[in-house]
What does this fold into?
Amino acid sequence: MKIRRTLATAVAVAITTPAVLLSVTPAFADSKPAAESRAKPTIEELEKAAAEAQKAYDKALAAKDAGYEELKTALSDKAPLAVAAAAARKAATEAAAAKTAADQAVTDARAALADLPDTATDAERTAAEKAVTDAETAAATAATAKTEADTKATEAGTASDDARVAAARAYSVLQNALADALAAKTAADEALTKARDEEKGGQDCVGADLRAAVTGMPASVTAGTTTTFSLRVGNGTKQTLDAVTTYANVHTTDTTGLKTTDGYMHLQWSTAASPKWRAVPADHLISGLGPLKAGAHTDVKLRLTVDAKAPAGNGVVLTSADYVNKDGSCGGGGAGMDTYAFTVKAAGSKTGTTGGTGEGAGTGSGSGSSGATGSTGGSGQQAQGSASDDSVTAGGGLASTGASDATVPLGLAGGAAVVLGGAAVLVVRRRAGAEA
It folds into this structure.
């Protein structure tokens, strides 16, 4: 049948596709031990591998699309085997009706013979007996025809069902082949992109006059409460930055500074463009801040909820920002990093100051905000550039503390350094992912 031949061809394509991929992948996938691995592939080899992977994917996609059309045809009531099965079922139904009629004719003929009066002539009796014999012969023929029709209907139905099952299985093979081809294509493209980046000298994002600084953060938070503050991202460069991302994380320890208590802290974010509160993701990166004009700033609202079981201790808010432009240039990272230290009070303690006056301690050259200004009492210290009212820019240094009467324990400072180091790697290495 046409459907089975076409599906067989499509499945053959699907089965041979992995072989094509196997001929491509050695150029970009090296699973051998270092001592046995082949030489590093060239850009030309990776380009060829990517092109072959694209061809294999296109071929698998075309086969899958063709297989889908064949599957629809096979499942349709207009499929040849489905039409044949329907005709066979109709014939069986008609044969059953004919047998029923023939059986009724036998019954009627026998009744007519039995009802003949004693006065019936020999000719009349002979005719009645012949009618019974003829009816019985016709009934036997109808019974045979019904049996044959039922058999044909069963066989046709089975053939139609088998074709549909085969089409579904064939399509599943084509889907799996397409998934394999896509995985190979993705790997080839990524390998080529990585190699091209390395060929350009492994360019990383550079430091820039872009700053993310905490504002409105209190000097202390209490377990079982929620605190809302802001993160101001300011563009101190002389150009519009196309896509800005900020890093925000809260790191805390107990009073000894030896035990990390980050698990008790839950940080959420929102912006004017996206007002719904959302959890800061696991990588602590908040995207979608959009383009930022030279000298402008944007604010991200942050909401810190501290579990009621959180122990007393110390904490620090860690922030950073970076950007990626449409032309591939990028910057931010270390130059714009900022910290704001605070204390954590056990549940039931009186709340501390709800704000603090930030004191710029950095060396940034751009204009920046004056820091976190609270509504009541207390002062906290932040590392940031020289300040102005409208924007925040890059600066050097890290804050020593966010609470005027607290000294950050060595454990917290060390942990903050590790987290900030991780943030720097995340921010600096994001260019390839952002471009994609």
User: Anything to note?
Assistant: The longest strand covers residues 243-254. The chain is about 45% helix and 15% strand.
